[in-house]
Amino acid sequence: MIDDPALRVWTRVAEQSRGAPVTLAHVCAAMVVGVPVDGAGLTVMVSTTVWETMHATDEVATGLEELQLTLGQGPCVDTFTLDGPVLVPDLEATAALARWPAFAPAALDTGARAIFAVPLQLGAIRWGAVDLYRAARGSLSEQGVADALAFADAASMLLLDGMAGVPPEVAELAWQHADPTANQAQVHEATGMIMVQLGIGADAAFARLRGYAFAHERRLGDVARDVVDRRLRFHPDGAGPP
């Protein structure tokens, strides 16, 4: 089990993208597996009445997003206007029906029995929400909530890249390892791939990635890109072409 939620999330996303440029669809698919839930919808919001659903994993998730836009109530609306996640483990509970008298019964008709929403945000600025649903009643674990928030951060990163006019697969994002060319998503993804290739932990995999970059006098982001694009593979006795 990977302790770092961000690395855990990007490892899941890498499994979904399979070397292709990472998209919101990959993040949502990874979220369904990683949290876990039965479906997810991601919506960008200007206000509680002006928004656009960017991706939904299935018909139920699509229906839940459409219901909230139509009815003006639901977890997506609440997490956008309030501070923090909205977690409803039982849509049939009296509290849920009282909170959303129009949305809750309609959501039950779609097949959802539990629903959770986490905000898309940067600092205090919120620009949307991710809705997650389950077909059976039940709460998210503490780790599930942490992972949902980390997946939302990953989605926010991709959205920010898009808003800046930079394709996510080539965006250069400065990050905590002080390499100005390192794309955070690709470095996390490459680290996850090295973990799988060598059967080692996250810290050791990142150390191998950074060590290779240092030994070959290359930037960390460039090496990570080679790993993600499958031009470079790590072996127990070194690294080289696949």
Descriptive notes:
By secondary structure, the protein is α+β, with helices and mostly antiparallel strands. Helix content is 49%, strand content 17%. It has helices spanning 5-17, 24-34, 59-71, 75-81, 94-99, 103-110, 142-163, 184-198, 202-215, 220-228, and strands spanning 39-45, 51-56, 86-88, 114-122, 125-134, 233-235, 238-240. Strands 2-1-5-4-3 form a five-stranded antiparallel beta sheet, sandwiched between helices. Strands 6-7 form a two-stranded antiparallel sheet. The longest helix has 22 residues, at 142-163. It is elongated, with a radius of gyration of 19 Å. The relative contact order is 0.14. The model is unreliable at 163-182 (pLDDT under 50).
Q: How many domains comprise the coordinates? A: 2
Class inferred from helices and paired strands: alpha+beta
Q: The CATH topology of the largest domain is what?
A: Beta-Lactamase
Relevant CATH superfamily of the largest domain: GAF domain
Q: Write down the overall geometry.
A: elongated
Question: What layout of secondary structure does this protein have?
Answer:
Layout: H1 5-17, H2 24-34, E1 39-45, E2 51-56, H3 59-71, H4 75-81, E3 86-88, H5 94-99, H6 103-110, E4 114-122, E5 125-134, H7 142-163, H8 184-198, H9 202-215, H10 220-228, E6 233-235, E7 238-240
Antiparallel strand pairs: 1-2, 1-5, 3-4, 4-5, 6-7
Helix pairs in contact: 1-2, 1-7, 1-8, 2-7, 3-6, 8-9, 8-10, 9-10
